[in-house]
Amino acid sequence: MTMYKRFSLAVLAVVVIAAGVAGASLTVEPQRHVVGENEIQARIDQQIVQADADRQAIQIMLQRADVRQIAGSAGLDLERASAAAAVLSGPHSKSWRRRPERSTPASPEEAARS
Hints:
This protein has about 110 residues and is mostly helical. It has helices at about 5-30, 35-60, 65-75, 80-85, 90-95, 110-114. It contains six helices and no strands. The N and C termini lie far apart (about 95 Å).
């Protein structure tokens, strides 16, 4: 065999072996996801529970006497507000939590100015 044929045969053998090893390593290892299905479902469940809690907190707040007084003096319909709060979801249900809570209820005059 000539030197050229031996060299070509050696290169071909290396390529075949390398392709076989690469293919075998791809089929042996199962595909790993960064986040598992259980973690995704737990996060979804957590968000659903939090959204329900947010809607409930808004409903409770709408029942407070000071809120009813301020809403009445501003001419707001609390029935419509309650119905709207019942269907809030996503960022709309979270926005009320970002506001600082007052230690004392605002008077209707203070509420009208803000």
